[in-house]
Structure formats: structure tokens, C-alpha cells
UniProtKB/TrEMBL annotation, chain A:
Pfam families: HmuY. CDD domains: HmuY. This is HmuY protein. It comes from the Bacteria. InterPro entries: HmuY.
UniProtKB/TrEMBL annotation, chain B:
This is Outer membrane receptor for ferrienterochelin and colicins. The keyword Ubl conjugation does not apply. Residues 1-21 form the signal peptide. It comes from Pedobacter insulae. It comes from the Bacteria. Its main location: membrane. The keyword Signal applies. Residues 53-157 form the TonB-dependent receptor plug domain. InterPro entries: Beta-barrel_TonB, Beta-barrel_TonB_sf, Plug_dom, Plug_dom_sf, TonB-dep_rcpt-like. One of its GO terms (biological process) is siderophore transmembrane transport. Residues 209-650 form the TonB-dependent receptor-like beta-barrel domain. It is a multi-pass membrane protein.
Amino acid sequence: MNKLNSILAVTLLAITFTSCKKDDEPVLVIPPSDGSILTLNAEAAIGTGAANSVFVDLSADEQTKVLRTSWTLGFYSGSDFKVILNNTAGATAKRIEKTDLNAVTAADFVQSEVALDLMNPNVNEFVKIDDPRESSILNKTAIAAVSAIESENKVYLVSPSGGTHTSVITAETVYKVRILRKGDGYALQYAKLNETTFKTIDIRKDVTYNFGFVSLDEGKAVTVEPQKHQWDLVWSWSIYFGGGGAYPYGFSDVVFINSLGGTQAGEVLSSTISYDDFAAANIASVTFSGARNAIGDKWRSTQPATGITARFYVIKDASGNVYKLKFVSMGVGGDGGERGKPVIEYKLIKKG
Amino acid sequence: MKRLILLSIFYLSVTISFVFAQKEDSTKHIASEKVDQLNEVVVTAQFGPQSLKNSVYNVRIINAEKIRLRGATNIQQVLNTELGFRFSNDLTLGTNDVELMGMSGRNIKILLDGVPMVDRSDSRESLNQIDINTVERIEIVEGPVSVVYGTDALAGAINIITKNVGKSLVNVSARIQDETAGNEYGLLRGKGNHNKNISANWQNNGWNLLTGFTHNDFGGWNLAPRTATIAEVNSVANRWKPKEQFLVNTKVGYRNDNFNIWYRFDGLNEAIESRGGMNPNNYKRELQTYTTHRYTQQLQSAWQAAERLQFTAIAGYTNLQRSTKSLIHDFTNNSEVLSTEAGKQDVAKFHAAIIRTTAIYSPSKSISIQPGFELNSDVASGARIKGAPIINDYAFFVSSEIKPTEKINIRPGLRFIKNSVYDAPSVIPSLNAKFSLLHALDLRLAYARGFRAPALRELYYDFFDASHSIMGNTNLKAEESNSFNGSLALHVLKLRTTLSGFYNLFKNRIDYGVDASNPSVTTLINIAKYKTTGATLDNSLILNNLQMNVGFAYIGRFNSLGDSEPILELPEFVWSPELTTNLSYTFTKMNGNISLFYKYAGSRPSYQLSTEHNAQNAKLVKVGAFSWADLMLNKNLYQNITVTAGIKNLFDITQLTNSSTASGGAHSIGGATLPYSYGRSYVLGVSFNWNKN
């Protein structure tokens, strides 16, 4: 509503200034949203983990739902040649010391090397996934950076759901992949573990996105994230960590900011200043962080199930707009909300 | 600790010296004969009604008179100052669990006239769902009685014996009692504890009929204001949820010289209200109601077929339903909708049937044999129960009582079990013996195997979601125990002193563990062992109008860390002392009585693992000691009316200190204090009793 009013105001303004030149159509600069209350509308899945990830663009009041299991690998569009696993589906990878995809067979498969042992405080568990403790998901990826020297690029076993509680992981469910550079992009060679031939998908780097995504199950490139300047945070189930970083664990209702796209966030405890009182003048007191998990799981408590914790966030998007954002309800601890449909409230406090 | 031992020795020597000093007087008439426990009759685990002195088991009795003097409104209030008993509160669910001699409720068999009470989980909330007004006495057997009562009877059995008709043709009684909850009270309703009962019975020509109705209304304590926020509600742990109970019971029976049959019905409707805090972001608040419906029916009969042959039969059927209803109240428009949170709406149903028949055959005076057959059938359904499983359990048991001489009584027993689901222990043995060393001195020795069948929930638990993966295990075996008990009972005139010791070794304890075939699944497995040991000294004395009871217990619970972390060299047991004192004085002329019920529960230590400077250490943590006392006055006003007044929880205990960071259990909150009670409360009650002969 606020946004509509703003658009109308700017439109009227634009028309006023340009009305003398009837030949040219006005160019509208859409102003950032003043704020809104948004219900992240995920689709129900079994249990507490929603079936979707929801990407939110604060300045456009927009949310984009993506089925968590719709992709397996993400190919970074930045200058590095890095590949991420789908943490939101519990994907895992195991490096095999071979470079010939066809030479990798079920004999190379050991279930415990692919299955993520959640809650096991063993450092080797984090090697199976893109380390969620890092400030950037690209810091410690399970799949090594793709080398320009072809022979350095090994084969990996990839389980699309190795870290979920309920999935069955066998030699039949696992893929073998090998990723090479191809020009300024990637070539993905992949096959089911027991297959003797492989297919190839080429992925080019599109700099308007953080990543290019591929679904191994569907055998094609898929769209997952919105363009990198069109989202600020994503709410999802994801492999994350517990015990202060001691062990990997599956978290529902975890929130990551678009750190690769330039979003930053700072936490404010309600005991310091209330959400309502927080204004532009207070921004200077906030420590902004570019870490992907600047929000993470700190905004809520499910064990004990007391729901939303007493804090809110100040978020600076890539255009410099600053929003204050609070979580209203999440359907835990009798907060009147619905699990899988968290409600966020945010307000523009400084225009970029 | 040493102080306590000295204190108890002092008490004992005082009591003994009193006895000898009062030798002359004790032949005089005693004001209240009911407390002369030696002549009291017990039935739990016996072949037939048996005097306490002749019982081969060491049985404790809490009789009707004591229950009346206490002004108790539930069974917990009667047992909480008894030796070896401890209660824990789950304030999240508004329920309680009992502990006997260091063992929690799931190892204690609760019986109502010999018929097992059904519980939905492993805490014994059923104990407080029995109408106290229908209780004639409570019999407590420590140590396993699994040969006779089957599963769960590892730590012991609590048998609640209900009232029978008296001698009069018609009897009508009514009782109304109000208590404050700490400093909170509303007259007859609202805050505080409000109890009302009306009972009537009739008998004629061998036919008898009893019926009773009770309403217990507890208004909760320390509740947050209605619009308090979630954070404000959660910031205080010691809040007590309002609980309301309606209880009804009926018993109809017929008896003649050789035959006795009766039917009994007990009904309960309980509602516990759980009011959450308001979410200040959306002005919504959750209101949950936990409703329990419990209907227990039993048919019992005893038949003296011949001089040396007797049959008894019990048939019981329990229907238990517990539902959770959660509403979300919207303060902005005063509307309510059902909560959609996972697990917030649920109905769990349990049906349990039991048939037990026994015969007693006494071919001679020195020998008698009791063979018996028991059939149990359990059915359950609910949100976290896979399917609607049925468990059938068949057991044959036989025990015999051999008295080679007047002074020796030996009772061996065996129970054979076949279960339709789990791998039951094929044979459970027991051996009890009583030796009369002197006329006044009895020695009892017992060895018994006990077992606890895997509960339905443990076999069929099914809880999978994004952050949980827990599966029941139908391959579970029973928990088993080996128990050794011994006691020495001295009864000189009106003094009874019992010194007893116990050692229990439990194996195959069922606990959560990781599934061997799939490490990402948590399941229930037979894993842990556990031990308890300890000694008790119990003294009862009657001096004219004064009755005294002093008890001391020193109970050791197994420290499992000592076993799993041998490198830390921890003690095998952690010990807690207890001291109980009951004093009751009757003013014969005034027709009144003053009673003090006191218990000191020593601090409860345990070891916790902690990592400091990258080295694993064991930290000794403690739940603090406390003293509990109830002071009660009873006075008979006119022929029919008695007034009860008093103070419960005299020392105003609300919470116990706790140095543990987590006290275990799903709803426990680690931290500096452990909520225990709502504080000192003041009691006033009137009861009315009318007879027509």
C-alpha cells in the first residue's frame, strides 16, 4: 500500500515535470518500499521444515518461493570458479581420487562417507558439506575450487539429500560429478553412480545472478535465486550447525542474508532500544555484518520452544537502503503464528 | 550427614527409653486403637488378608485415620512426608511424578484395589487422579513384586485400598475443605485449592452399595496477568497451572460367609489450563487445555470353595483419553481460532484390560500353594503412536508358602510370561522368607527379580520431522532388576522399630540411543544399567494419647558417569539422607487432635560432565535440601461434625536450589532453582458424618 502511494506520488511528480514534453514518455524510478508486513508463504511439508526456501526483496516487497529440492549444485558467477551444494536439501559430497568419471563405480561408495551424521561433533562431518559456520558459503566448499588445470579436477560423489534425517542413501541415489572450466564458465559432467556413460551440461556465468543452478535429478540448469540485486534475505530449512559450531545439524526457520549480493545486517536487542523507537539516528550505533548468517537462527528459539527472541535487525541492501526488520510470529511457543509461514515486519528508515 | 545419623540415633534412644519408662502406663487403654499397626491387616501381595506382623513382605501402611488427620486432598499430600518418597513436578504439563527409594515412577506399580492404574507415559500422574475421599488405606511394598503384579513393579508397589461399608445400615458423609495456595485465595472458588466431597453407603443382608462424588478445584498459582507477554510468562519458572477435577465412584457388592463379589466404577474428568503469554507483535495469545477422561471398572470376587481351597478373580478395564486443545486468542478483536502449530491438537487414547485369577490351596497347615493366571491387553492410539497397536500379555504365576515351623515362613514364587510383541523374560523368580528370631523380633529376607515391559510408547513411538527423527523399537527387551532386601523388625509393647536395607541392580534400562543401522535415527534401546541401595530405620511408638513415628533413610542412587567415564574415578553412588517425624496427640476430653508431619529431604547430589580447558571433568552438582512440615488440628464439634484446620508447607518452600545446568527430562529447566511448591498454605475444612443403624 505504502509502495503504491509512493509510486503514485513519484508518477504525479514525474508527470508534473515532464508534462510540457508530451512526445516523450516519462521514465519512472521506482522508489524503495517504505515498509510492509509480509507473511512468508511457504508450502507445507512433513514436520517443521517447509518445502520451500523463500527469498525476500525488502525494497520491492516481494517474495520468491523456490522448492528446496529443485536444485543440487550452484555455480558461482563471480570471478572465482566455485561450486556450492544445496544445503537447503541436505546435499553432501565426497571427493574420489579419480579423474575419470566412468572409472568411478559403486565400489567407491561408502554410505557413511556420504551420509551426514547430524549432531556428531567430528570435524570430518563438516567436510561433507559447504561449511555453514563460515561467513561466506564460498569459504570452505565441499567441492574444491574448479582448477584451470583439468587433471586437478577430481570426481565427487554427490548425494542430493545426504544430510536429511529421513532420506535413504544408497549407491542408487548417489551421483558422480566432475566439474571443469569451460571458457569463462563451467562444464559439468555427471552420471548416476552405476552408469557407464556420462552427460555434460555447460553453465555460463551470468553476473546478474550470484549463481547458476543445476538439478541433477532433472539433468538441466534451473532458476533458483532471483537476480542478485533483487533479494536481501532467504528463509529456509537448511543444514546449519549446533553446539556453538561443534556439529552440523538441520535447522528449520533459518535466515541467511544475501551477503554475496552486498546485503548487510546488524542485530539490535530489544532491551537496548525498541523496534518502534529505532530511527535513522540510531543506525550509527549498529554494527553491520556482511556474514551470510548475520541473522541465522538467533532470531528464534525452538529448543526450548519459546519462539521469537527479543531482538530485531537493521538491514542495509546493496542500494544503501536501510530497513529495520522484526519477526512477528513463526508458529512456535504459542505466538499465534503458523509454522512454515513466518511473519516479518519491516520499515524503511533511511533511503539509499 | 553425620549430624543426621547422630540425630536419628538420638531419636531412637529417646523412643526406646520412653518405652521402658512407660511400661506400666502402656497397659492402659489407648485412645485411638486404629494406629496399632501390628494388628492392622494388609492384602498387597498376600495370599489373603494378613496381619502386618505375619506378612512375609515388609509392608508399610498409611491408614484412614492418618489420611483424615492430614486433611489431605490428594495422595501426594499423604505420601510426601513418607520415608523414601519424593515428588517431582512437570509444571509445563501440570503433572507430578512419584519416586520411591531413588527410583522414578515408571518403576513403581500403582494399584487401585489390586488393579493396575494406567498411565499414558512413564510418569505416574494417575496417582493424583484417585479420589482421596474413597481411600481406606495405602499399602506400600518396597522391592519387586513382579511375580504377583507383573510389569513395572521393580521399585515396589503402591496399593490404594478403597473404603468398604461400615457396620451401619446407612451412612452419609460430606466434606468441604478450602486451602490457600501460598498467599493466594478466593473464597470457595478461583485462586486456592477447593475440595468438596459427598459420599453415601448402604448395606443390608450382605448387599452393599457405596457411592461418592468429589470436586477438586485448584486455581493455579503465580499466574501472569492476562496480557503478559510471552517473554514475561517464560521469565518465571514457578507458575502452577489451574487444575479442576471431577471424580465419581460407585461400588456395589454382595457377600456371605463363603463368597464375595463386587463391582466398582471410578470416573475422572480433569482439565488443566495452560495460558501462554501474549505476542506483543500481533496481540495473540495461546490458551491450551489438557483434558483427561479416565474410566476404570473392576469386578472382583473371592470364593471359599472348600475349607482348604479358595479362589479369587479380578477383571479390570480402563479407558483413558487425554486430549490437548490449543486456541489462539486475538486480543484485537476478542476472537479465538484453533492453533495450527505442530502437535497442538491431539487426542491420545488408551484401553487396558486385565484379568487375574488365583487359587489358594492349603493341603496342610504348614504349606499352601497359590497358582494364578493373568492376562493383560493394551491398546493405544495417538498422534505419535504408529498405528493402533495391541499388546497382549499372558502370565502364569505360582507361589507357595511353606512354614516348616511356627517361626519360619518361606515363600518362593515364579512367574512365566508370554507377550505378543516384545521378548518377555521367560521366568521371573522371587524368594521371600520371614524368621521369628524372638517373639518380638522378626527377620525378613528377600530376593526378587523385577521387570518392566517396554511401554507401548517405547515400542511404537513415531516422530519424524525436519528436526526430529525418533522411532520406537519393537525389538526392545524388558528392563530387569535383581533386588535384595532385608529387614529386622522389633516390636516391644507399643514400639515398632524396623531396620531395613536394600540393593537393587537394574539392567537393560530403556533409553534413547542411536539406531545402529542408521546413525541419523534416534530410537529406544536397552542400554543402561542402574543401581540403588540404601538403608532405612523406621520407629513407631504409641504413648497413651501420643503417637510418634520417626524414620531415617539413606538412599544411594547410581552415578552412571562413574561407569561411562571410568577415567574420572567417580564414586559409584550418590547419597541423599532423609528424616521423617510424625507426631500426633489426641485430647480425649476435648475430642481433638493435633498432628505434625515433618520431613527433611537432604540435598541430592549428582555428577555432570563439563569441559574446562579442553579437559573433561566431572562436576558435582546438587539439588538443595529442604524441610517440609504440615501442622494439622482436628476437633469433633458435635456428634457428626469435625473441623479441620492447619498449615501445610509450614516452612514456605517454593523452590529448591539447584546447581545443575540441566536436570534432564523434556520439560525441565536447568538453572539456579527447581520449582517445588506454591508455598505455605492455610487449611480449613468441615466434615459431616451421619449413620443410621
